[in-house]
Design goal:
Layout: H1 5-24, H2 31-42, H3 50-57, H4 61-73, E1 77-81, E2 89-93, H5 95-117, H6 121-138
Antiparallel strand pairs: 1-2
GO molecular function, one term: DNA binding
Protein name: Transcriptional regulator
Pfam families: MarR_2
C-alpha cells in the first residue's frame, strides 16, 4: 500500500469542515464565517483588518473580500475606520455575531477536546507540530 499523506490530510480536513458546517448551519453561517467570528472574538481587544483574516486563514485577498462582503450582508461584521489610521477599515463584529460568540467558542473548544480525546498527549503535540511544519513549508 502506498502512503498518501496529502489524501489523508484532505479527508481529515473535509471531515472537520463537515462537522463545522453542521454546527454553523443552525446560525445560518458557513464554517468559514463561523471561524472568522471565532478569530475576531479571540482578538476583540485589537484592531483587526481584512489582511489579518487573509493571513490567519491563508486565503487570497479576493476570497477574504467576498467572505467579508457576505458577512456584512448578513449583518455579522462591519468595516469601520481604524482608530490609528483613517485610511484603513477595521473589521468588527456586530451585535448579532457577538450573540454567537459563546456558542462558537464552546464548540471550538469541544472540537479540540474531541480530537485530543483519541490521541495521547504526545501524539497530539506531534500532530500540532507536524501540521505547523506542513503549513509553514507548503505555504505560498
Amino acid at each position: 500500500m502506498t502512503e498518501n499523506i496529502g489524501r489523508q490530510l484532505k479527508i481529515a480536513s473535509t471531515q472537520l469542515t463537515k462537522q463545522f458546517d453542521k454546527f454553523a448551519i443552525q446560525y445560518d453561517l458557513t464554517s468559514m464565517q463561523m471561524s472568522v467570528i471565532d478569530f475576531l472574538t479571540l482578538f476583540k481587544d485589537q484592531e483587526m483588518f481584512q489582511k489579518d483574516i487573509e493571513r490567519e486563514f491563508n486565503i487570497r485577498r479576493s476570497t477574504a473580500s467576498t467572505l467579508l462582503k457576505r458577512m456584512e450582508d448578513k449583518g455579522l461584521v462591519r468595516r469601520v475606520e481604524s482608530n490609528k489610521d483613517a485610511r484603513q477599515k477595521q473589521v468588527i463584529l456586530t451585535d448579532l455575531a457577538v450573540q454567537y460568540e459563546d456558542d462558537i467558542q464552546k464548540f471550538m473548544v469541544e472540537t479540540q477536546q474531541q480530537i485530543h480525546s483519541f490521541l495521547s498527549d504526545e501524539e497530539y503535540a506531534a500532530l500540532e507540530s507536524s501540521l505547523d511544519k506542513i503549513i509553514k513549508h507548503m505555504g505560498d
